[in-house]
Amino acid sequence: MEPNHGSFSKGTHLDIGKLDSGTNGSRDSATVRAVKDIAFGSIAGMVAEVFEYPLDLAKVRLQSQVLDTAARFGGPLDCLVQTWRNEGIRGLYRGLPVPIFGAMAETAGLFLTYSQLQSLLLWCSSDVFRQPSLPELGLAAAGSGFLTSFIITPIELVKCKMQVQMLTAPPRIPDFKTHPPTFIHTDSVDSTLPRQHRHTASQRFRELPGPLSIVSNTVRVSGLKGLWVGHVATIIRETGGTGAWFVSKEFFASLLLARRTQTSSLSGTRSFTEVPRDNVELLPWESALSGALAGAIYRLSLYPADTVKSVIQTADDLRLPDTFTPSERLLKRPGSFWQTAKAMYKARGVRGLYAGCGMTVARAIPSSAIVFVVYDGLTQRFA
Description:
Elements: H1 16-21, H2 30-64, H3 76-92, H4 97-124, H5 134-163, E1 172-175, E2 182-185, H6 186-192, H7 201-207, H8 211-222, H9 231-267, H10 284-301, H11 303-318, H12 337-353, H13 357-382
Antiparallel strand pairs: 1-2
């Protein structure tokens, strides 16, 4: 691979520049490098999340209906239209602060641990001054995804619960006007009340619990371990997906840089937008293209694990065992990863495991491009 082409600038591994030159000011210290990884990763994740959040909300809602007898939404577009019509713009961005914080923590954690694990692998090798190979980058990326999954799971649990709050099936109450008593939805009772006493969408929003209430209720009911419901699925998705994400980005970036540098050496001239070959850096469009391709590969690689995770994390909200709901017979409690995956496959087949996949890949392409353009740009500007 070409040196210094990826997400990290020259001399980031083990502060090689310092070891080589002997000067303290020539290269960033490990602490400063880590702080920059956290800061740049946080900014990149936040910018991308604001862009993609409505599509992520639609993805989770499509995934969560796989075990329902009747689908609420006919597809991604229908989900967005219904959400807009019934909940307005607030519905499309319901719970946005949580994923913004989560995206900042996730992206910062991924870039930080990816960088540090590369340094660790080089330190364990016989030559700390070389660039890591592609398999070593893959191992560092997979390790980064594994470690970061412990941060991501509680954040995504809260996010998924907030995204399906307006879809929670209303409880049914006995109607003693009939004999024997029948059960009616509370929504039907609400519709018979005078208009001034009915619940509007904005009133329902105000009544819904916020992120802190969701966390406290989860801990009260299930203990701290309840915050890591669906963690096995997150580990599978993040370990394999992050490995594919970083490795494919580095691979495509290598191809683009090799093409540019070879063309420049043959022609003997460079445009004003190119950098000297001894200090090769990615151009913005190269970061965007390699990041976009990597984003598509990341989402496609282990997408069924993400679908299973969403179903597990929203099971208590959409399939309540202690109320009379249309879906009471489907799934009483969040099952294990394999139990849920089998139930989903039995209900909808392979198509159910890939619910919302097309839209997710479509949003991952620009989102991943944004992440790497922002991160690489900040790194080249300030590192």
